[in-house]
Every structure is written in C-alpha cells, then in structure tokens.
C-alpha cells in the first residue's frame, strides 16, 4: 500500500515585519502629501494678502489724488498726517494705511518737503497678522500742484 501525500499548499502569509514596513511607507508618504498641502495653503494666504494689499495701496493713492484735485496740497507741516487721513473706500478692518515720507522736487533732487512744486509721497498699506501672514505693500506717488488759473505774463505762476 502506498501512502499518498497531499500536495502542500503554500499558506505563507504576510509577516509582521512586512506589515510594519508597509505602514511606515504609507505614513511617510501621507506626511509628505499633507506637508505639501499645508505649504500650498500658507503660500496662497501670503499671495492673496500681497495682491489685496497692492490693490488697496493703489486705491489709497487714487483717493489722495482726488483729495489733492479738490483741496490742493497739504502744507509740509502736516502733509504726512493730512494725506494719511484721506479716506480709502472699502478698506477692510484688518488693513492700515500710512504715509511714510513726503518730499519735494527742487529741480535737481528730492529734498525735504517745501510748499511749492511737486510732492513725492511714499504710501504703505499693511495687513494684520504674524510675520508669516503679514503683507506690507508700498507705493511711491508723485503729485503735481493742481492749477486752475492761467499765466498771462511770461514766467508768471499759473497756480497763484
């Protein structure tokens, strides 16, 4: 009589080491993907703040130009505070505006502010937030004194 042996089935499953290695690889991949997503969110916030800050600093410059057209130059003594007080339409609560410098053109260079001539303003709009999410946008604006009169004599000041 012969004994027949049953063919052996390979019932070898996954070992614990193989499972631990697979879970570790999936964990590392998940951390890398989530890190990339978080970096994308932070970058998006910074770019959005930069873009909106740039738009609001240009709105600030337009509001100052409209004010100068209607009311003329501010005197040098109160130019920075006077221009900074100009209302900017629809400026959100988290944004602050300021005039960081006022200078005048003397014919060859920008100097400390004088009463006549062209004024140069350095405008700044800042968002609130920590250093990572904060945006400072600056813009330099040159204002001409509005003149509504005409000079009759040669060399006469049409703005007088």
State the assembly state of the protein chains.
single chain
Q: What string gives the helices and strands in order? A: HHEEEE
Largest sheet: 4 strands, antiparallel
Count the E strands.
4
Rounded mean pLDDT is 81
- Largest sheet, order of strands side by side? 2-1-3-4
Spans of at least 5 consecutive residues with low confidence: none
Helical segment tally?
2
The domain count comes to 1
Strand content: 15-25%
Principal-axes shape call: rod-shaped
Q: Indicate the structural class.
A: alpha+beta
- N-end to C-end Cα span: 132 Å
Topology readout:
Elements: H1 16-71, H2 79-84, E1 95-105, E2 110-112, E3 119-127, E4 136-143
Antiparallel strand pairs: 1-2, 1-3, 3-4
Explain how this protein is built.
A hairpin with a 4-residue loop joins strand 1 and strand 2. The chain has a four-stranded antiparallel sheet with strand order 2-1-3-4. The protein is built from two helices and four strands; from the N terminus they run H-H-E-E-E-E. It is rod-shaped. 39% of the residues lie in helices and 19% in strands. The protein has one domain. With 160 residues, the chain is of the alpha+beta class.
